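G., before I forget:
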Amino acid sequence: MTTPDRQLHDELIKKYRWAGRIRLVSFLLLFAFLIMMKFIGGYSYLNPALLAVVFVEAILNQPYAFIIDKVDLRRFQYFQMCTDVIAISWVLYYMGGLEAPVISLAYYAVILWAGVVAGFAAALFAVLACVFSLSAIVLSEHFGLLPRVTFTNYAMPTAQVVTILAGNVAFLFAFGYFSVRSSTIIRDLQQKRQEESLRYTHRLSAAGYLMNRTAHDIQGCLAGIRGSVQILLGMRPKSEEEKKYLVSIEDFEKRGAELIHRLATFSEKPKNEFAPADVQTVIEDALALTYPLARYSKMSIDKAFGQDIPLVIADRAQLQEVFVAVILHALDSVAEKPKGGELSIHTKRSDNTQSVDIIFSDTGIGIKPAEVKQVGFTAAHDIVASHHGTIKVEGREGGGTTFIITLPSCASPKAQVSS
Amino acid sequence: MMYKILVVDDEARIVDIMEKFLKINGFDVMKAIGGEAAIRLLSGDAQFDLMLLDMKMPNVNGIDVVRKKEELGKNFPVLLLTGSIDAEKHLDVLRESGFTFDDILYKPIDLPALLGMVRKKLNIK
């Protein structure tokens, strides 16, 4: 499953969990209501069949992990809808059909849920199922096909039953339309948000490509400058001052070339070349790449590299990308603080030398849960995962962020697999 | 009359180059390497006719220097030196201080263009 699919799946499961909780609570309330009715007198609805339905719906029909992991979510949803409609109809029947109109509100919950979570087809299915069950129960009760459960001796004329039923059916359809409509609006908004983030990703990758190609040209220009200046220096400048400016040109050119080289390397397509790498040098490279930003920021950097850190098996370029993303986040986050702040980077090895911990901790404004899902971090997550490592984010809103990246060392069996 | 120009940049060699160039063209030059040094000079007794100011400097940046200068009630004109991307970011702040596009020079700076703008600012024909 790709990352966006995974996210969608996770979100859906989260919705199911919530629905499960709501289901449990509402059926418990219903149960309490039934007990209460029994004890305060009036009509008693407490019978084994009804209780069995309540139990099945509240306890058994939950989105348990072992079910969701095995079956398709869509199928599970249709199954849930069917059992819901059957249960509601059962309860409705036992509570006197049209004499207990409140309970039919539960039908609306099923339709809303179907429309919002699964869309048009599911909503239509839910509406039809509800209409069918409601009509079947009310009509068969009215015409004596089912034993009548009634608490008054009043028998409604057929015309009245049909009118009320038709009104209910119309409402169910209208509600189905409403739920599908609202779900489309929600979906459009979500899609727009996703498209925007995708467009940004495309732009970034186009920018990376351009940067890589342009860097090559700039390096050409710089080579011309370097060559010319070295010829002039070789021709023995007339004065010390002349020499000073020529050396100055050479130095500036070298610095420019170094920066361009770093940018060009960074913007190259990942090659997936895994090799033993020293984490410390990769961090230093990432720091050098972000130096032009860090230099003008109000963020100080504190490095504490542990002793005897084992090598890790890594694609250096990709690992550098992860560190750059984390450093950029720290820069942004610290910039929001008027007095600036600090980024401390330290590395340590785990006790059994099986893995290396790289800890980036900043004193910026912290991280919001939504930010963790942003482009840079999703990529970072994927990269670390492809290195068989983990990345843990500890955000304290307003109080800085800590990223703990753990990578298996060369000594670890996990690393041997990827090498 | 010899005009006195304050040149501010965090890069010592850039300041040297501008100093050399301006001196060749008959200006008196004071150098400040970094924003802190500029503020120290501005707070002193020295009088200037113009300031060439780099926007992007560590710790105390160009905007901080402009603010301090206004606070001190120093009234001479300023030419800002900046990378094009940063200028856009700071344009609103600069407008508040009464700067216009005519006061901004984009890096890498073309020295003859710099000379033209310096002369214009100082009303030298």
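Chain B has a mean pLDDT of 87. The longest helix of chain B spans residues 12-24.

More on Monday.
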